[in-house]
Amino acid sequence: MNLNGRALDRAALARLAGDVGAAGGVRAVVLDDGAERGIRALEFRTGGGLNFDVLVDRAMDLGNAEFRGQGFGWRSATGFRHPGLHEYRDEDGLAMMRSFSGLLVTAGLDHTLFTAEVDASRYRYPHRATVWNGLHGRVANIPARLLGYGERWTEDGGCVLWAEGEVRQAAIFGEHLRLTRRIEADLGGAEIRLTDTVRNAGFDPTPHMYLYHINVGWPFLDEGARYELPVERTLWQSDSVAEQGVSHVEMPAPQPGFVEQVYEHVPVADAAGLVRPRLVNERLGVYFELEYDTAEFPAFFQWLHLREGAYAVGFEPSTHHVAGELAAREDGSMTFLEPGEERSYHTAFRVGTL
């Protein structure tokens, strides 16, 4: 481990401090005010300048995130709203906009993207011939069962901070999907690693769609920041791109009345199929980088929400293309998990200096 400019192993750290918490660690807390009241959270401090929160009661998603005192996890006006306040069918399926905040908001487990009413006959319940899905599905507002958290020492003398939880999305005469999420960060490091496994724990073939809404905000996002993503081609872009003409590479200052701009790109992957898009802020001398596997997430969306008061850029690896569930069912690209079948996803978030 490199801590405060020194290479330390477990024994050396023990000579300096009676508790790992002097260098970093994971602490369990409960948020206790306003719309956030009652949310369990885990505070990660790596000792390498990276601090971030895991929102246990929000599907183990990532909330606040900072590097060397500079924020990069998007903080919207909604705060980290308690899932008990969430009404899934509210506002014509756009209810997630009242709880949309943080570095990572997970979408799924059986539906992502636009609202859709789809066939539910596979669940064999005559009174529920279809199922209605809101924007980006249900998972982000389901509390996790916390399986554990803490520190794990490695054979080479390093220390890994970790947390693991299970999110269960289930209904009688409906889906039974379970997400197991493990989050790791090295003591002294500046990287967050996610390993997600989604399993069909039911006995019917079940739809599965999955997407990460990874949101970077101010001050990492600022006028002059640069979105770096080698692109082979762009498959789709929202009408607002032509109407507004705002660059998706060089970021402007917050714009009055800005309408979100969304792109579906085909990025250039390396030989292992990995893609590493970045947001670079040369004025602060920092960057944020995502690493994901195109075999696990074959689609990628770039989200620009550069409006005053809600200033953010999004990195969105996805299992399905931007047209959504109805189109995927129609063209045969929809994923169905057989009973007991599972899919795993591996991603990393990195921050650093230029």
UniProtKB/TrEMBL annotation:
SUPFAM superfamilies: Galactose mutarotase-like (SSF74650). GO terms for biological process: carbohydrate metabolic process. One of its GO terms (molecular function) is catalytic activity. It comes from the Bacteria. InterPro entries: DUF4432 (IPR027839), Gal_mutarotase_sf_dom (IPR011013), GH-type_carb-bd (IPR014718). Signal peptide: none annotated. Pfam families: DUF4432. This is DUF4432 family protein. It comes from Streptomyces hoynatensis.
